[in-house]
Amino acid sequence: MSEPWSPTSWRSKPIVQQAAYPDRAALKKSLKRLSQLPPLVTSWEVETLRGQLAEAGRGERFLLQGGDCAESFNDCRSEPIASKLKILLKMGIVLTYGMKRKVIRVGRFAGQYAKPRSAEFETRDGVTLPSYRGDLVNRIAFTPEDRTPDPTLLLRGHERAAMTLNFIRSLVQGGFADFHHPELWDLDFLDCAARSQDYRRIMDAVGDAIRFLETVAGQSLAELSRVEFFTSHEALHLDYERAQTRHVPRRTGWYNLGTHFPWIGDRTRDPGGAHVEYFRGIANPIGMKVGPGMDPGELPELLDLLNPNDQPGRLTLIHRFGAERIGECLPPLIEAVKCHRRTVVWCCDPMHGNTITTDGGIKTRVFDDIISELSQAFDVHRRMDSILGGVHFELTGENVTECIGGARGLDEEDLKRAYHSDVDPRLNYEQALEMALQIARHASGPRE
Ligand code: PEP
Ligand code: CO
C-alpha cells in the first residue's frame, strides 16, 4: 500500500534542484497569493489531452511537443509567441500528412520558466554566486542582487504564463491557422536542401491534400480540425506547482491547473524523491524524461508509483539518449515496460542527448545527430513491435543560429551570428520544419 498523498507530501522526501530563498517570509507570501489566483487551464482540457495521449500510445495520434528550452520573461511578446505557434502548426500539418495520424500539439510554453542546473553555484573571476535557475527563480545577470532567488518572480511567471496562454488561445480561435497558404510557408531554404526534390514533393502533396479536403468539406482546415494547443513545462519548482494544484468541483483528485502536461526532468526522477512524490498524486497526464542514466531495473517501480492503475495516456516516457546511445539504451526500457505489462506513450526527445560544446565553448547540437536519433527511435520501436507515439523538440519560430547543420548548412562560425538562447540550443524555423519533413519522409516513403 502506498503512503497517503497530499499536495505537500513531497516535503517529507529528499529534494534536488530547488532554489534557496533567503527571505522565507516573502516566499510564503508569494505562494499564498499564487494559490489564490485563478487557474491557467481547466480539468476538461487536461482530461481531453489525456484521452488524446492514450490514442497516441496506441498509434492513433502523434504527439508533437516543442518550444524553448527555457522561456524568458522578455520573450513574452507577440512575435516570438506567434512564430512559435506557426512553426508548431506547420510541423503538425506536415506530420499529419506523413504519419497519417492526427497530431497533438503541445507547446513547451506558458510556464517553462524553471531550469535544472548541473551546479548550484557559478564562479567568475573569483566571485561565486547562485546559478541562474530560470526567470521564475532569479535573473541571469551576474550580480548578487540578480542571482538571489526572488519570490516575486513566481507571481511574474504566473502572469507571463497567463498572458502567453491568453494570446495563444485568441490566435487559435481567431483562425490563425493560415497554413493552407503556400506563400506563408517561407520555404527559401528548400532551394539549398540536398533533398529539395523530396521536400517539394511532400510540400506539394500536403498543399494538394489541404486544398482537396477544404474543397470537399467547404470549410477551411482550421475550422475542420479545430486546432487545439496544449501547454507543458518541466514541473521543477515544487512550491510553484503545489500552489497551482487544486481540487475541482465534481471531480475526484487533484489537478495541476498551471499546465496541461507537466513533466519530470531526467535529473529529478528519483523514485524516492520529492518530484516523483508530487507527480504520483496529480490527475494530469504526465511526462517523464529518461536518459542514459536510467537503470531499466528501476523502471517498474516508477511505473507502479506514477501509474498504478495503468491508465492509458497517463504516463509518457520521453527518451533522450543521444544518437550514440539510443541503440543500446532504448531496447531494455521497452522490454521492461513490456515485461511489466504496462501502457506508456513513448516519445523521442532527440535534443538533450545530443548537446555538444564547440572548441570555442559554445553549446550546440548537430542537425544530423538529431535526425539520427529520431530515425533510430522509429526503427527500434518498429523492430520491437512498440509504438513511437511522439517527438519532443527544443525549437523557436525565429531565425536563430544555435544548432549546426540543416539544409542551409549552418556551421560553427554561424553560431556567433544569432545565438539567443540562455540555456540549450534550439532548432530555428527552417531546421524545425525540415525536421518535420524528414520525419514525414521517414514515415511515408521508402527509405534508401
Ligand atoms: C529540458 O527539457 O530542457 C531538460 C532539462 O531536459 P532533461 O531533463 O531531459 O535533461
Ligand atoms: Co533543454
- Overall spatial form: globular
What is the residue-mean pLDDT, rounded to a whole number?
Answer: 91
CATH class designation = Alpha Beta
**Any idea what the radius of gyration is?**
21 Å
How many separate domains?
Answer: 1
If helices are DSSP runs of H or I spanning 4 or more residues, what is the number of helices? 13
Find the structural class using helix and strand composition.
Answer: alpha/beta
Q: Estimate percent helicity.
A: 25-40%
Order of helices and strands: HHEHEEEHHHHEHEEEHEHEHEEEHEH
What's the CATH architecture? Alpha-Beta Barrel
Biggest sheet layout: 8 strands, parallel, barrel
Contiguous low-pLDDT stretches (5 residues minimum) are: none
What's the CATH H-level homologous superfamily? Aldolase class I
Bound molecules: phosphoenolpyruvate, cobalt (II) ion
**How are strands sequenced across the largest beta sheet?**
1-2-5-8-9-10-11-14
How is this structure best described in words?
The protein has helices at 24-36, 43-57, 78-99, 144-147, 152-173, 196-217, 221-225, 238-243, 274-281, 299-306, 326-339, 367-383, 429-444, and strands spanning 61-67, 102-108, 121-124, 127-130, 230-234, 245-247, 254-256, 261-264, 286-290, 315-319, 345-348, 355-357, 363-365, 388-394. It is globular, with a radius of gyration of 21 Å. The chain is 38% helix and 14% strand. Helix 6 crosses helix 13 and helix 12 (367-383) packs parallel to helix 13 (429-444). It has an eight-stranded parallel β-barrel, surrounded by four helices. The chain has a two-stranded antiparallel ribbon with strand order 3-4. Strands 6-7 form a two-stranded antiparallel ribbon. Strand 9 (286-290), helix 10 (299-306) and strand 10 form a beta-alpha-beta unit. By secondary structure, the protein is of the alpha/beta class. The protein binds phosphoenolpyruvate and cobalt (II) ion. Cobalt (II) ion binds at residues 69, 352, 394, 423-424.
